[in-house]
Specification:
With 563 residues, this protein is α+β, with helices and mostly antiparallel strands. It has three domains: 7-183, Four Helix Bundle (Hemerythrin (Met), subunit A) (Up-down Bundle); 241-338, GAF domain (Beta-Lactamase, 2-Layer Sandwich), CATH 3.30.450.40; 427-563, Heat Shock Protein 90. It is built from 13 helices and nine strands. The protein has helices spanning 7-35, 39-62, 67-78, 81-84, 93-114, 118-191, 207-258, 264-277, 329-389, 395-422, 431-443, 463-483, 523-533, and strands at residues 280-287, 291-295, 304-310, 313-322, 449-454, 488-495, 501-507, 537-542, 547-553. Strand 6 (488-495) and strand 7 form a beta hairpin. Helix 1 (7-35) packs antiparallel against helix 6, helix 2 (39-62) packs antiparallel against helix 6 (118-191) and helix 3 (67-78) packs antiparallel against helix 5. It is elongated. The two termini are 93 Å apart. The model is unreliable at 425-429 and 557-563 (pLDDT under 50).
């Protein structure tokens, strides 16, 4: 292909024009500056003529002996080369004519001074000095015009050079940089095995157009040989990657669910991992005992589901909504089986922990009943016998016996409540049933109405947390019954957005006056200790009517709860 417009020739022409403009601008500036070398001297000399004219007027009246010397100096200043050189073609005619006018007018003034006509000289010197002033102003304007010429020529030269440079840059970007960048991009496409690079379009018929067309033809031939092999390799690679991703996900979930002990947080973390890796909008695990949900559901999106299998029996469902792309059914079924087994193991561990804890507490209750309860009963019998054996009714002794009897009755009542507390969960299968049973037993003893409402989340608590939560709720309800004379007591459990557990017990009674407990009472202190073992916070606040007890604790306490 014949190149009609060479890129190198165009760039060389632009650079030559820039250099020529720079030389012209510099030469004109140097010439103007060289002609201005003696401008300052000429202006100074012209200004000194004004001073010398007045000095001659002074000499003619006051110092005639200096007159001759000063006349000679004036003539020498008027004939200085800096002033005589003003007679040049490029000097303005105004300046030349004013200079000649000064030279022509001076002989007449000089004769007047030599004839001692000082009065006539003084009358004419003012007009002469005015001509000197106009001559000085002409020199100043001439010098300023030359500086303006230098500035204007330099500015025009700079503008022309910048314009040429910008035009050269624009030409280079369009005709050189753009095609070269396109060639570099195309080469990177080819290097990565992608031959579908953007078309190499060069408008001008130059060397780069020839190079772009040659490169495109070469890439097309390479693509035709590479495409057949790439298709087969891509298909096999895609299958292997999908299989590897599936195995990797199953392995990670298996590792997460095989850790002991299992917890609701660990199961939720495994479901979150599945949701993120498979681009699911929401993932829900539902069974008869538990329900887990990660993500946010879309009301209009389609639901997919697989059954939860445990020992060839279906005990729940794993459902999900997809953001894009439906996961393979086999993968989701395998994940459902793993999650089902994890839930089963977690429930089993919780039941074992609950039974161990309940059995231990039952043992403590039996020991208290067999020892301390019998001792208190014996003391009450002995106190009754003591009252009967007194021969005379001594008022002081009867007062002491009455105080003793009242204190012993309080101790016996507190012991019965403690035994009821320890035996509260012996036959309960889970916390929800235990809460309902505890509230039902208290409801039978009082006329106040006890309401219980809850949100999902109680099933995620371990055995220790369940016991502490149950005992705090029972103590708060008992306080509302005994001390507040409440008619309506509300017990509510919920979880906030951070996953924290929140238990509130609200009554409409007289309200608590102080959180300081009377001597011999330990209910509030015990509640605070249980809240601390849950790594939570317990707040007791008086309201406009009644009292609110609020317990807040995290899903995974920083320290293990103790009994």
């Amino acid at each position: 292909m014949i190149v009609k417009r060479s890129v190198t020739r165009s760039l060389a022409q632009a650079l030559s024009a820039i250099v020529l403009l720079a030389l012209l601008t510099t030469g004109l500036a140097l010439m103007t500056l060289s002609s201005s070398l003696r401008d300052a001297e000429a202006i100074n000399l012209a200004g000194s003529l004004r001073m010398q004219s007045y000095r001659l007027a002074w000499d003619s009246n006051s110092d005639p002996q200096q007159l001759r010397q000063h006349l000679l100096e004036y003539q020498q200043t008027l004939d200085k080369p800096a002033l005589r050189d003003l007679d040049r073609p490029w000097v303005p005619r105004e300046v030349i004519s004013r200079y000649h006018h000064l030279r022509n007018a001076w002989p007449a003034l000089q004769q007047q001074l030599q004839r001692n006509d000082a009065v006539v000289y003084q009358q004419q010197v003012a007009n002469y000095v005015g001509e000197i002033d106009r001559f000085v102003m002409g020199l100043q304007r001439y010098s300023e015009r030359k500086m303006e010429l230098v500035a204007a020529s330099s500015l025009l030269g700079v503008i022309a050079i910048v314009a040429l440079a910008l035009a050269a840059i624009r030409f280079s970007r369009r005709q050189v940089v753009g095609p070269l960048n396109a060639l570099v991009t195309a080469s990177r496409y080819v290097e990565s095995g992608n031959f579908a690079f953007p078309a190499l379009v060069v408008e001008q018929n130059n060397e780069l157009r020839v190079l772009a067309q040659t490169f495109s033809a070469m890439a097309a031939r390479l693509h035709s040989h590479h495409q057949a092999l790439a298709g087969a390799v891509e298909e096999k690679t895609r299958d292997l990657q999908e299989a590897n991703r599936t195995l990797s996900l199953l392995y990670e979930i298996s590792q997460m669910l095989s850790a002991s002990p299992l917890s609701a947080a660990r199961i939720e973390a495994a479901m979150t991992q599945v949701q993120e890796r498979e681009n699911l909008r929401v993932l829900v695990l539902e069974s008869e005992q538990v329900r887990f949900c990660v993500g946010e559901r879309e009301p209009k999106s389609h639901w997919y589901s697989v059954p939860l299998q445990q020992d060839d029996e279906q005990n729940g469902t794993l459902r999900w909504q997809c953001e894009r792309g439906q996961p393979r059914q086999a993968l989701m079924q395998s994940l459902a089986n793993m999650l089902s087994r994890a839930v089963f193991l977690w429930q089993t561990q919780k039941q074992v922990q609950q039974m161990l804890l309940i059995e231990e507490r039952a043992t403590i209750a039996r020991e208290l009943h067999d020892s301390l309860a019998q001792a208190l009963s014996f003391m009450r019998i002995q106190l009754t016998l003591l009252r009967r054996t007194l021969e005379t009714p001594d008022p002081a002794a009867q007062t002491i016996i009455a105080d003793f009897d009242r204190t012993l009755a309080d101790a016996y009542r507190q012991l019965r409540e403690l035994l009821a507390t320890f035996r509260l969960t012996i036959e309960q299968a889970d916390l929800l049933a235990a809460m309902q049973a505890m509230i039902a037993s208290l409801q039978e003893q009082v006329t106040a109405k006890i309401n219980f409402s809850y949100q999902p989340g109680l099933e995620t608590l371990d055995a220790q947390q369940q016991v502490h939560l149950l005992q705090i709720a029972r103590e708060a309800v008992l306080n509302a019954i005994r001390h507040a004379s409440a008619q309506i007591i509300s017990v509510r459990y919920e979880r906030n957005d951070k996953g924290e557990h929140l238990l509130t017990v609200t009554d409409d009674g007289v309200g608590i006056a102080s959180t300081d407990e009377p001597q011999g009472h330990y209910g509030l202190t015990t509640m605070s200790e249980r809240a601390a073992r849950l790594s939570g916070e317990l707040s007791i606040q008086a309201q406009a009517r009644g009292t609110q007890v609020a317990l807040r604790f995290p899903p995974r306490p920083d320290v293990n709860s103790s009994r």
